[in-house]
Design a protein that fits this description.
This protein has one domain: Rossmann fold, CATH 3.40.50.1470. 37% of the residues lie in helices and 21% in strands. It contains six helices and seven strands. Helix 2 runs parallel beside helix 3.
Length: 193
C-alpha cells in the first residue's frame, strides 16, 4: 500500500481554528510547512490541496472545506478523480476516547461516533488508515459533545500538543514510508507523554 493522500479533517473558517475538532487540519498544515508545500483551493473537490513531490511520487495533502460531517464528499471525489483506492488514503482527526496528546493508528473498525469518519466510510468504504489524535474526554458527562469538540484548547493543552507536534510529524513520515503494520506497531506503543 502506497500512501498518496493525507487528509486532515476539520471545519473551515476562522471560527473553528484551534478547536479540538480541527487538530487534523492543524497537523496537515504543519506537514505541508515541513515539506515546503503551498495550499491551493480546489473548488471542484471542495478542498484545499497541497501537492508534494515525495521520493519520486506525488503526495496530496488535503483539508476538505465542506465541514467535518461531509468530509467523505470531498475526499471521495478526489479519490475517484485520481483513480485511487481507499488503501492509498490516511485520515488525520481528533478522538475523544484517547487522552489528550496521545496518537493511535488503525486500519479498521467502526467510526466510533465520529461523524466525519461515518461519512468517509459511507462515501469511500473501509480500508483507509486512521491517524487519531487524542483530545481527551468531555470534562462533564452532561456537556454536549458538539460544544466540547468545537471548544478551543486551553493554554496548557496547546503547550502539550505543541510539544507533541514533532512526534506526530515523525508518525506521518513513518506512515508514508513504511507498511501500515510496521507503522501501527511503532505508533501504538504505550509510552508516557
Amino acid at each position: 500500500m502506497s500512501i498518496a493522500v493525507i487528509a486532515g479533517l476539520g471545519n473551515p473558517g476562522s471560527k473553528y481554528r484551534n478547536t479540538r475538532h480541527n487538530v487534523g487540519f492543524t497537523l496537515v498544515e504543519k506537514l505541508a510547512a515541513k515539506l515546503g508545500a503551498e495550499w491551493k483551493t480546489e473548488a471542484r473537490f471542495e478542498a484545499e490541496i497541497a501537492t508534494v513531490s515525495y521520493e519520486e511520487r506525488r503526495l496530496l495533502l488535503v483539508k476538505p472545506q465542506c465541514f467535518m460531517n461531509a468530509s467523505g464528499r470531498s475526499l471521495g471525489a478526489i479519490l475517484r478523480y485520481r483513480k485511487l483506492s481507499a488503501s492509498s488514503f490516511v485520515a488525520v482527526y481528533d478522538d475523544i476516547t484517547l487522552e489528550l496528546g496521545r496518537a493511535k493508528l488503525s486500519l479498521s473498525g467502526s467510526a466510533g461516533g465520529h461523524n466525519g469518519i461515518t461519512d468517509l466510510l459511507a462515501q469511500i468504504g473501509p480500508g483507509f488508515l486512521r491517524y487519531r489524535i487524542g483530545i481527551g474526554a468531555k470534562p462533564h458527562k452532561e456537556m454536549d459533545l458538539a460544544d466540547y469538540v468545537l471548544s478551543k484548547f486551553t493554554k496548557d493543552e496547546q503547550t502539550l500538543l505543541a510539544d507533541q507536534n514533532p512526534t506526530y510529524l515523525e508518525h506521518l513520515q513513518l506512515i508514508i514510508d513504511k507498511e501500515p503494520e510496521y507503522a501501527m506497531n511503532f505508533i501504538n506503543q504505550r509510552t508516557a507523554l
